[in-house]
Structures are given as C-alpha cells and as structure tokens.
Amino acid sequence: MAQRMSIKISDSVVDCCGPLSESALSEVEADDMAQIFAALSDPVRLRMLSLIAAEAEVCSCALEEPLAKSQPTVSHHTRILCEAGLIVGEKRGRWMWWRVVPERLKVVSRILSN
Q1: How many domains does the chain have?
Q2: pTM of this prediction exceeds 0.85
Q3: What CA–CA distances, in Å, run from 4 to 11, 17, 24?
Q4: Fewer CB within 10 Å, N- or C-terminus of the chain?
Q5: Residue 29 CB contacts under 8 Å (≥ 6 apart), including other chains
Q6: Which of 111, 88, 97 is nearest to 32 (CA)?
Q7: What's the CA gap between 77 and 49, in Å, rounded?
Q8: Is residue 109 situated within a structural domain?
C-alpha cells in the first residue's frame, strides 16, 4: 500500500506525495501508458489529436495546412498516434481518414485524474 507523506507549513499540515493510483502498475500497463505518453509528448501530435477529436473524422490532407506540415510528416505523426491506439484510420481512395478511439482517451483521462 502506498504511503502518504505530510509536511507542516505554519500551523497546518499539508498532504503531499499521495498514491498515484489505487494499485501498482503491472509491466504491461506501464508499457502501455509509456507508449501513450510518448505519443502525446510531441506538440505536433497533441495538436493533431485535438484537431481529429474536434471532428467525427478528419482526412490526412486536412491536417497538413493547420499543422503547417508536409504529407510525409503528417503520416509519421498519425502512425505514432495510431500505434499508441489513440486514433484509427480508414483508407478511402488515396487518403486516410482518422478518428479518435474514445476508450483510449478515457484511459488518458483516468491516468491524468488520479
């Protein structure tokens, strides 16, 4: 069980360093979370995820202009978000259409709210 530390500031006691979660992460959970955080650690990918999340679906071609990135760069970043399970794509003609995976966003939200 995680131990909680307290520090005294003036006449009050402030809790800090509380447990990050109810239980310790398994190796698989830690690997999964690390992949999510690695994917989200890039500002371009954060913006890209927010653009995709703001719409039901977004074509790769529609990501180039707002991100000011070339098609190969957009493909690189969507691949990383896809490998982390944050987005899924469907090829239509020569373009990929992307949408977020709501369940994965819930995982991110749960991680950050603990």
Answers
A1: 1
A2: no
A3: 19, 6, 15
A4: N
A5: none
A6: 111
A7: 10
A8: yes
Per the rule left: phi > 0, alpha: psi between -120 and 50, beta: everything else, 75 is alpha
Helix (H) or strand (E) holding 19: none
CATH of residue 32's domain is: 1.10.10.10
- The per-residue pLDDT for range 31-71, each reduced to its tens digit, is 998 999 999 999 999 999 999 999 989 999 999 999 999 99
How far apart (Å, rounded) are the C-alpha atoms in residues 99 and 55?
Answer: 8
Dihedral of CA atoms 72, 78, 79, 81 in degrees, nearest 10, equals: 150
Q: At what angle do helices 71-83 and 27-40 cross, to 10 degrees?
A: 160
Residue 45 lies in a domain: yes
